[in-house]
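re: ur question from earlier - yeah i can do the single chain one, its not a big deal. heres the input i used so u can compare w yours
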Amino acid sequence: MPLPDLRLKDIGKKSNGAPAGEAARQILDTITPQVTQSMASRSISTAGQALLKGVEGVPKTMENLFK
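and the output i got, formated as tokens:
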């Protein structure tokens, strides 16, 4: 799953240093929306491909119904 490069700086700068949990929260708050968007795009693409594959045989099936 490709994600864009992320550049975070000044984590903990406001409080003169951040505990590990706060640093992790800031990182995850940045990454989570991008991962969610990427996964949603991938799911839509996969669903679309499955739908197209499912309807591939419809014309032949319809043709066979009227023989």
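The helical segments are 20-55, 58-65. not sure if urs matches, ping me
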